[in-house]
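Task card 7
Instruction: Convert sequence to structure tokens.
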Amino acid sequence: MKLLFGLTLACYVVSTLGYQAYLLFQKRPIYRVSSILLWVGFLCHTGVILARLVETGNLPVQNFQETLSMFGWAVAGVFLALQIKFHLMVLGALVAPLATLAVVIASVLPRQPVEVGSLLKGVWMTFHIGALLVGNAAFAIACSAGILYLIQERAIKAKKRGFFFRRLPSLKLLDSMGYSCLIVGFPMLTFGIITGAVYAQMVGGRFWSWDPKVISAAVTWLVFAALLHERLAVGWQGRRAAVMSIAGFMVFVLTFFLRFSG
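Output:
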């Protein structure tokens, strides 16, 4: 498993460098190689996760190290899936480094022992935590699209065909990407919270607790629920939606680290 994880890490790192090179030189072969490497890294990472799942009976999210690695895996997977529709090649220059950074940090953190769980608990928690991971990964990509949107909007307003103007996609495409991430992420986050509440009722006899894990998920849900409402009911799009997506992901990052602090 160590060899497979090493291959995962190598593919992520080289893919990240490739996406940066594509941003600079805009050569399609560079993008193709970077995309292939990210796919290989993602598949190898999936193999590591499955091996860990079989070994412990739990999805590997029992501590900060494992959760961070799983988040990197989810970001890479959701991005690759969305690329099938949008082909936003330059977005990899932000998303690939995020996924890689999460996995790199996880790889250097000390490994903590985890409990071996029952099969029933492992299956149930796989659905619960898997949904949360996919949802938050989609929000991370929405944040990246929002950052590119603001950069491109500024370049257009400046009326200068500078470095970013020639390399970034249209504002409409970036906004569509952000909206699609929201449509994917919000139901997954909602499903993750519901399944978590049901599991808490089954195990502890109550749906809600003031556990930092529960609070962090609830706060993130409220932020993105507000954004989805404004987009559907009020017609928010463009700059306001981009700013809200960035702010929402920052809330997730804050609550994520607070969850594991102390």
